[in-house]
Amino acid sequence: MEEKSKILVISLAIALVILPVVTAVAQDDTETLESSSGSIFNFGTDAKSLAMGGAFVAVADNYSATYWNPAGLTQFSGVQLGGMNLQPYGVNGLNFSYGGGAVTIQDFAIGASYGQLTASMTDQLGYADTEFSDYSETTIGGTFAYGINFANFGANVKSYQFKGDSGFGFDLGTLMTFDGINLGIAANNVGGVSISDNSTVDPSYRLGVSAELLELAIASAEVDLQGDSRVIKAGFEILPIDQFALRGGVQVPSSGGPSFTVGAGINLAGLTVDIAWLQNNTEFAGRSGAGDTLVLSAGFQFGAFGESA
């Protein structure tokens, strides 16, 4: 346990010292995709994780680990598939779909993901007759993860398509377990992704912790860093019975007020169905056509490969 503690301290120190510095250095004056409404690059995926306030980097225990923390894919055995759909900010004409899957054999996991945001808006959110009123953005990713004892490591390679341009990026993640407490760290779009001469996807970083409480609940918290912005997230999941979950969370940005989330899910023989409600307390809350966000997702897990009897 002493050796594990040393590794934990070293990992935290490296993350806390290096990541904010790298983020600051990577910033420039080019247009960033992260600022676009509902961008798939930072909105989040999956009703379970979003219901928990998006504090999922240290949980990452379903198909959406391909988005939140690729190292999480080694937490289950066999095959896991899932997908979700939402209308960001409740806007008609704005649709975001995401799907992912992975196969885990012993300590190795290989996964893939696909996400697409389509926009066909008139006067919603004030984007009429702008470059954002009718467009689409897409990401396709491949994931590899490996677990060693208490530590898991993962990486994504992603292809972006945005307004006719494209680029490649990658993510790195680690998930470490210490007596029921998980530490998760993810670096997304490491070094930034150049889409065109004046459009980039900026790097971002997540650092979080989660804890299992009496085998009946999970509590999680994390901080997300991107440039000068910071979002603190916290969430929980309560399991009154194995087949049913209640969830809630909050997001507190560095500027603006908090946004609250709630949700629920069922699990029947490996089939999960989840729903989440996300409060819209963003800059778009008062704009025409904007409202809160409803998220629906489903997943299925089956099989177990490479395990001894």
Task: Describe what you observe in this structure.
With 309 residues, this protein is mainly beta. It has one domain: Porin. It has 3 helices and 17 strands. It has helices at 2-26, 47-51, 65-68; strands spanning 31-32, 78-86, 94-105, 108-120, 134-148, 151-162, 165-178, 181-188, 193-196, 199-201, 204-213, 217-226, 229-241, 244-253, 259-268, 271-278, 293-302. It has a 14-stranded antiparallel β-barrel. The longest helix has 25 residues, at 2-26. It is globular, with a radius of gyration of 19 Å.
Strand content: over 45%
Query: What percentage of residues falls in helices of 4 or more residues?
Result: 10-25%
Looking at how many chains there are and whether they match, the oligomeric state comes to single chain
- Please name the fourth-level CATH homologous superfamily: Outer membrane protein transport protein (OMPP1/FadL/TodX)
Tell me the CATH architecture. Answer: Beta Barrel
